[in-house]
Amino acid sequence: MPKINLHKRDYLDNISQEDALTELQNKLAPKMHASSRRINRSPNLTQRHVDYRWKQLDNELAKAQLLDSHTQVQMSDYSKNIEFFIGTLKMPIGTAGPMRVNGLFAQGDYQVPLATTEAALVASYNRGANLITASGGASAMLLNEGVTRTPGFAFRTLIEAGQFVAWVVTQFDDFKLLAESTTSHGKLIDINVNIEGNHVYLVFEYLTGDASGQNMVTIATNCVFNFILEHSPIEPEFAFLDANLSGDKKANSQSLRSVRGKKVTAEITIPSELIGKYLHTTPKRMTEFGQMTTVGGALSGTIGINAHYANALAALYIACGQDAACVAESAIGMTRMELTKDGDLYASVTLPNIMVGTVGGGTNLPSQKACLDLLGLHGTGKSQALAEVTAVLCLAGELSIVGAFCAGHFSQAHHKLAR
Fold first, then answer.
1. Catalytic one among 77, 323, 338, 344?
2. Is 77 a known active-site residue?
3. d(C-alpha 416, C-alpha 419), whole Å
C-alpha cells in the first residue's frame, strides 16, 4: 500500500545549487556589527529607566497600549516581578462556573477566572463546571505536596561516590538547619539519594507553605550545596546546584508517580440523564472515547493520559499569578471515565504536579490578586484549596471536551465561537 505523504516540504532541497549555497552562507554567518536595537542599560524599574527604554523603542502606538495611565500609576507594584519593564499586557478574562467543589480544603461554588485568547475555551469549561454543580459537585482530595531541587555531584569512581553518600546520610539534621535558615516558610522534609555510576544525585524535598516555592527551594538548597562543597570528606570532580532530576518545568514520568507541587485527585459520578442534558451524548459513548484515546496516547508516547489539562492550567495560572511555565509539568496526569453498573458515568482526574501558590510570586500583582480574590483564595492558608479547585477545573474541562467529541460538536463549537 503506498504511503501518503502529500506536499511535504524540505527546505534543504533548495540549497544544492552553488548560488543557493552562497546565499545560505551569507544568511547564516555571524554578524559582528553593533546592534542598533540595544535599549537596556539597567534592569531596574524606575520612571527614568522606563522613559529611556521607550525613547529607544520609539513607537508611540505600542507605548500607548503597553504603558497606559493605569499601568503608570501601578508601576512600582511590578518591581519585584520583572526586569527591563516597559508596560503591562492586557488579556481577556472570563469566568467558568459556578463549579461546586467538595474538597478537604476547598468547599463551595466557585466562579473560576480564566485568562485566554482562545475562543470557545471558557465556554467549554463553563459547561463542564455547570454539569459538575448539577451533579452535586466533585469530590477533591489533596494527597501530597512537596517541591524538589536536585544537585548533582561527579566523582572519579563509584567507590568515591559511595563514600560521599555514606557521609551525606549522616548530615540530614545539619542540612535541615541550613536550608531552613534561608526561609521562614520552607521546611526540608526529605533527601533521596540516587547513584548512577560515579554520579550522585541528591533530591531535596521541601514543604513550601502557601507559596509555589521554586525560588524558595533553590535558595535553600544552594545554602546546603555550598556547605557540602566546603565540608564533604570526598571532593567531587565537579558539581551543580541542579542536575535535572527534579522535573522542574519539564514533562517527566517520575512525577507521574510521586509529587512536585501538590498532588490532587478529584472524582464525580454523573447521572446518565445529566450527560444527555448538558453534553448531548451518553456515558457509554464517553467511556468508548476514553478507551480509544488511552490507546492513542500510549501509541504516541504520552506521559499520563488526559485530553487537555494544559488549557485549564495555562488560563488559570496566567489569571492568578502563577508561573505559567510550570504548565509543562502540571499538565501530566490521568483521566479515567467508567460506566457504572447503573449506566451512569464515573469520571476522575489525578494531577501529581499542580504548582500553585496563594502568596508570593505574581499573586500580589494587582490583576492577579483580584482574580484570586474572586475565588476567595488569596493569602495564607489558601494554597491547598486552590490546588483542589484546579483539579476540579481540569475535570470540568475533560468532561466537556470528551462530550463535545462524542456528540460531534467539537468542530462546530470552534466554528461558531472562534471565527
1. 323
2. no
3. 6
* Catalytic residue of the set 185, 199, 344, 414: 414
Question: Which candidate in 118, 180, 288, 344 is catalytic?
Answer: 118
Q: What is the mean pLDDT of residues 208-236?
A: 96
User: Of the CATH numbers 3.30.70.420, 3.90.230.10, 3.30.1360.180, 3.20.20.60, which one belongs to the domain with range 151-240?
Assistant: 3.30.70.420
Of residues 345, 328, 219, the one with CA closest to residue 273: 345
Cβ neighbors of 127 (< 8 A, separation 6 or more) are: 278, 279, 396, 400, 403
On whether the CB atoms of residues 247 and 329 are closer than 8 A, the answer is yes
Q: Where in the chain is the domain with CATH 3.30.70.420?
A: 151-240
pLDDT, tens digit (0-9, with 9 covering 90-100), for 322-376: 999 999 999 999 999 999 999 999 999 999 999 999 999 999 999 999 999 999 9
Is 118 part of the annotated catalytic residue set?
A: yes
Q: Is 329 among the residues known to form the active site?
A: no
Element (H, E) at 108: strand 107-115
- Please name the fold of domain 98-144+261-417: 3.90.770
The contacts of residue 45 (CB under 8 Å, 6+ apart) are 75, 76, 78, 79, 82, 83, 85
